[in-house]
Structure formats: C-alpha cells, structure tokens
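Lecture notes, part 5. Sequence design as translation. It can be helpful to think of inverse folding as translation between two languages: the language of shapes and the language of residues. The source text, in structure tokens, appears below.
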C-alpha cells in the first residue's frame, strides 16, 4: 500500500491511497486542478482514481467534491448526514454513494472501514484502509479522544493523525474566545499533546505516524514535531502532512 497527503490543514484536506491496484482519494478539500497536479508530482494520473470518499461536511473536506466528480467522473462516497448538509453547495453530483458511519466499503481486495468520530461535523467518520494485513488510518477532525479509539489505533501500521494545535499558541493566539473553546472542546480537534499521547498509549504496531491537519495560527510543524518527539521518543518514525503541498509517497508496511 502506498499513500501521500495532497494537502492537510484547515485550508483543505486530501489524501491519496493506492492499494492492490485500487486508487482512492479521501476528502476533497483542494481544487480538482491542484489534486491533479499534486498527484502528477508522484507520476499518478487522477483519471485512474476510482472514487473520492468524504469524511464529513466541513468545507475543508468536502468543498471540491462536486467538481472532482464532474471533471474526472469520480463517484462521491459520503454519509447520509454529510450529504444532506453539503449537497446544496456542491453543484450537480450524479453519482453519490451514501453509507452509514460504521459501514465497511469494499473496493476489490481493499477494505475501507469507517469509524464514527466525536467531531462537530455532521455524521463524520475517520477511515481505516486495509489490504494484505496492512492497515492505514486517516484520523483527522476527531473532536476528542472518544471512547474506543484506542482499539482502532492498536491495529494500525501507518496513521495520519490530526495534531491540530499547541495549547499555549491557541490560548495566546488571535482567535476569539468562543472559537478557542470550540477547537479544544469535545467537538473540535486534538492538540499536539493529545495526539502524541494517544499514540503512546495505544499504538501497538505503528511503523509511521504522519502528523496532519495542523492549524496555521495555533501551531507550527516544528512545535508539533518537537511535542510528538518529546512524548514518543527521538527514534519514533514521524512524518508531516503539509498545509500547502504534496507529501512524500509513503509505503505502508
Ligand atoms: Zn478539517
Ligand atoms: Zn471538521
């Protein structure tokens, strides 16, 4: 299994996964053109992608799903709630494949498990992609460390995990009080410390942690990495998903 992040952050998210000959996009938070160009940087043709699968209805995850569908004939998978909440903003989408949070989606030999989250999007999910005994998690926009998440973490070989904010930067940063409370509240995001602590407590076989969905104003790649290293140790394999460019192509397992 191979994967890269085309971009991740509150300004747009998209992840690419290639497994057993199946090519999938997760989330549609960047333009169709950027998606195409960034895949091309890894010599991948977006016309060979089979589907785009949406985590939840926030615009940094769903905004460009309609254009991706129309331009590249991609079917759009999303939950009933996410579709209801975003359908009015996506334009014409003739091929929507609705699922329930918790369902398993099958693409030949590749399985996509969907995990309900506690984030304040509507009917949102995280993903576990598996094939040939390897499992990759895409866990952004989680809300908080919700019950049962450790069980999912324990199975993963590689993981995109949100590491959204540094506590002090959020507290002392430019956001209004209500927004600070939303971000660190039960329906918001995991901080750098919470993310690394979750991995430290529950990962059993993780070979690669990719810090994702970093805030522009309340975090920096250096601080997120330092916090993770302080908790997980200097030798733990950690990479970053960038806020404005494609990441390396990572091999899972
Ligand atoms: Zn988001
Ligand atoms: Zn969100």
């Amino acid at each position: 299994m191979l994967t890269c992040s085309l971009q991740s952050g509150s300004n747009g998210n998209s992840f690419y996964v290639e497994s057993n000959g199946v090519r999938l996009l997760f989330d549609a938070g960047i333009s169709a053109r950027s998606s195409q160009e960034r895949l091309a940087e890894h010599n991948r043709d977006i016309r060979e992608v089979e589907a785009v699968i949406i985590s939840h209805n926030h615009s940094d995850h769903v905004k460009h799903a309609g254009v991706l569908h129309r331009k590249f004939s991609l079917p759009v998978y999303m939950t009933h709630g996410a579709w209801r909440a975003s359908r009015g903003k996506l334009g014409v989408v003739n091929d929507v494949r609705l699922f329930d949070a918790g369902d398993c989606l099958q693409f030949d030999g590749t399985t996509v498990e969907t995990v309900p989250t506690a984030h304040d999007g509507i009917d949102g999910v995280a993903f576990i992609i598996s094939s040939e005994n390897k499992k990759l998690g895409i866990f952004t926009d989680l809300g908080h460390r919700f019950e049962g998440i450790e069980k999912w973490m324990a199975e993963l070989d590689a993981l995109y995990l949100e590491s959204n904010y540094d506590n002090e930067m959020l507290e002392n940063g430019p956001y209004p009080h209500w927004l600070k409370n939303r971000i660190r509240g039960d329906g918001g995001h995991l901080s750098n410390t919470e993310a690394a602590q979750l991995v430290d407590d529950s990962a059993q076989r993780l070979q690669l942690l990719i810090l994702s969905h970093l805030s522009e104003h309340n975090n920096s790649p250096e601080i997120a990495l330092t916090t993770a290293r302080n908790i997980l140790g200097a030798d733990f394999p950690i990479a970053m998903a960038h806020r404005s460019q494609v990441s390396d192509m990572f091999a899972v397992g």
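The translated text above is only one of many valid answers, since several sequences can fold into similar shapes. DSSP finds nine helices and 14 strands in the chain.
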